[in-house]
Design goal:
- It is a single chain.
- This protein has one helix spanning 13-36, and strands at residues 54-55, 63-70, 74-79, 83-89, 96-102, 111-117, 129-137, 142-145, 152-161, 170-178, 182-184, 190-193, 196-202.
- The protein is mainly beta and 209 residues long.
- The longest helix has 24 residues, at 13-36.
- The protein has an eight-stranded antiparallel beta barrel.
Length: 209
């Protein structure tokens, strides 16, 4: 038995035009929102290591010790010539940034850890300061960060200017502890930091980047 054909109603031209305009307006609004929303400063991505990193050897070997859990599970026990490190002012000239690189092989990059301490003043003893922490898995291209959230803090146990050097170099020792995990910047996953101790160098004479 043949079914009666349903009458076809054409969409009025004015309604089609209005719908199209609304759609374009919605897309434009979303594009404006995406480009105008500020991206949090995570002390990472670009410019975190603006010059080649060197072996972490000073008057005593530098080091990075601790544990990582979650998406990255490993024991950190980096020392001296077996790692690379550097220190510089943060891009906004407020505070300092320390960079620690797990040196495995020229062709096999390991983990890179960036510590940004906005309120740190060189040479001044502090009890506790908020820290931006970024962990970069250079092999797999994964980033984990505090994203400017109050999750991690650092204390300096020693800040000492080295003598007998051709440029001003400081050795900075300290500890890091975090109350929450560092979320992945893209996709699921997170990394939790155990007790972290570090000894790195800082070169205040370099240009602020």
């Amino acid at each position: 038995m043949n079914q009666p054909k349903q009458p076809q109603h054409e969409v009025p031209l004015w309604l089609s035009t209005a719908t199209l305009a609304a759609s374009i307006g919605c897309v434009s609004l979303l594009a404006w929102w995406a480009f105008s929303t500020p991206v949090p400063n995570t002390d990472n991505m670009l410019g975190f290591a603006p010059r080649p990193l060197e072996p972490c050897v000073m008057d005593a070997d530098g080091y990075l010790r601790g544990q990582l859990y979650g998406q990255i599970q490993t024991e950190l026990n980096w020392l001296g010539n077996e790692m690379r490190c550097d220190g510089m002012y943060r891009p906004d000239s407020q505070g300092i940034r320390l960079v620690f690189d797990e040196y495995l092989d020229e062709e096999l990059p390991g983990l890179l850890i960036v510590i940004g301490i906005k309120d740190a003043v060189l040479g001044e003893p502090v009890v506790e300061l908020p820290a931006n922490i970024t962990i970069i898995d250079q092999t797999n291209g994964q980033f984990f960060s505090t994203r400017d959230q109050p999750r991690c803090w650092t204390t300096f146990s020693e800040q000492m200017e080295l003598t007998g050097t051709t440029e001003e170099i400081w050795r900075i020792n300290g500890q890091i502890y975090c109350a929450n995990a560092l979320a992945a910047l893209a996709g699921p996953g997170a990394v939790t930091l155990g007790d972290i101790e570090f000894s790195g160098l800082f070169k205040p004479g370099m240009d602020r980047l």
